[in-house]
Each structure stands twice: as structure tokens, then as C-alpha cells.
Amino acid sequence: MASSSLALPSVSLKTLSFTSSDAFNKRIRGFGLKNGKRSRILMSLSVGSQNQTVVVDDTLFIDYKPTSAFLFPGQGAQAVGMGKEAQSVSAAAQLYEKANDILGGPKEKLDSTVISQPAIYVTSLAAVEVLRARDGGQQIIDSVDVTCGLSLGEYTALAFAGAFSFEDGLKLVKLRGEAMQEAADAAKSAMVSVIGLDADKVQQLCDAANQDVDEDNKVQIANYLCPGNYAVSGGVMGVEAVEAKAKSFKARMTVRLAVAGAFHTTFMEPAVSRLEAALAATEIRQPRIPVISNVDAQPHADPATIKKFLARQVTSPVQWETTVKTLLAKGLKKSYELGPGKVIAGIVKRMDKKAEIENIGA
Length: 362
Description:
It comes from Populus deltoides (Eastern poplar). By secondary structure, the protein is α/β, with parallel strands linked by helices.
């Protein structure tokens, strides 16, 4: 086989296998629930049937007290050559083998939503295995008591927390990427980062841009990253209007994002029904530790609620700024960014220069 520009382990290309990744999934399940909270799971029997229905209190993690967090990146973190370090770690290499049909190709293909989302998901979980293989790595993994991810990264966090298997997560991420790409192809849309303004000013900038465009080109804040860095999504003409007006609002700069379209807006509405169907067919369990939702910056324990919020996530603004602020306010001591790039570490440091965060690449 021709060598991959993603520097993946050399395996033959064939139909992607989703048979059990036992080593990964057993390690994930092996952590168990922390703080003895199993007692808050309510059990009920369906009438006239022997099927058990597990009803989980969705507020199970509401009073979480974070000390150590795993943070997972989203789309835009992809880079040619990511995954190279993981080749020397057997457990990480096995994850790539299972996803080999999805990954690979030059950067212009990596920027395609269909390819970049699974690539980042697998590379981020491979980074967990790279850490595990290090001296003291398992102790770090065992100490993690909260996790979250930026957009796509929420799926990675849920897989790490044992809410679904590596394979099921990969299938969901693959379908999510396809559905979002189709939605992006259906209308001309884009995303741009606005640097140097607070959220209120960015909203005013969006309002001004929207006065100059028709309904199909309107824009909105799609990603509340951190103070001074907010992503705006919408129609191409609306995004161009934001770029043209940004200087007059005293923005330091704008950066067009390498994504397929207007993520986290109503432009992604066509993707929702496909996601809902896929999520309905996927077994999702209560996470073993809190996983913070991008939609409301809160942890959810009930699988049905998690499914609902994952479907809503593609059309809802990402509340990352609130998520990180809450973690820091609750006393988070140390965090780790696992996967390609160092975007999340930069965001955390921007919000608290004294915050302790380490990047674990793959």
C-alpha cells in the first residue's frame, strides 16, 4: 500500500471493522463509577415484560467537584502526520487499524468534515493510549474525574467516559461528519473567528452584518471559545460582511476557519434527523465520570438526555467558555489536552494564565 501522509500504521485497506475493540473497551469499563453514586440509579420493570428499564437520574453529576480533567479537541485541529507517535504504542496502533479506511490523505482532504472528524476522534483516543504507556500514565488516567470536548471532542470524551464503545463512537462520528458535510453542501456557508472583541461586541458585529444580507446569509455566534475569541457562522455573504466590518468594531483580526460550512447554526438542521436516527440505534450508557455538554455546559447522566443533546449540538452554539470557566471556578487543579494541536491549552491559558494544562499528542 502507498504510504499514508497521516503516518498511520501500515495496514491493508479493507472494509472498516467494527468488531469489538476489547482492549480499549475493557479498560474504559474497568474504571467503574466514582464516589459511590451507583445508588442513585433507579431501576424499574416494564409491565407485562421481563425487560428491565434503567432510568438514570440526569442530575447525578450536577454537584461534581473536578480536580483532574481530560479535554479533547474538535475539528480544525487536524494536521498531516498526526498519529505518528502512536505507531510505537500497540494499543493506539490497534485503534488506527480499526479506522484505517476512514483516515488518510493530504490536508485538503483532511479539512473535509467526512474525514477530519473520525481522524481527530481516533487520534485523540490514541493519545490516551500513548499516555497510558508512559510511566505514571495509568495513574493520571485513573485520577481524571471530569472530561469534555470541543464540539466533535464531546464524542471523544463520551467514549473515554465509557458512555459508548470506541466502535460505536467512531460510527457516530463518521455519520455526523457525513451529515454535516451534506448540510454544508446544500447551502453556501462558512465560519470565521473574530479575535479581540468581547461576546457583546461580536453580537453587535453580527447584528450589523445581518442588516446587509438576506435571510439565507444571516450569521450568529456559533462558538463561545474564550474571551476575545468567538467563532461566527452563517451564509458566505454574511461571513464576508463580518470580515469587512470587523475593523470598524475594533476587532484585532478575523480568521476564516478550515471547515465545510456554518456549523452550530440552523444551517446544520438537515443533519439532525440523521443523527437522531443513528443515536436512537446506538447503546449509550451512563458515563462513569461527568462529561460536560457543549449545549448547556452541564454534565448529563441519563443516556436519553445525552442522545437528545448530541443531536441538538450541531445546531446549537458551543458553550466552551462557560465550560472552562465553570471547571476553573469549581477548583480544577490539572487538565490534559489529548489529541492533535494545542488549541485547547491556549484557550485555558488565556482564561487563567496560572492554569496547569499538559498536551498529550499522538
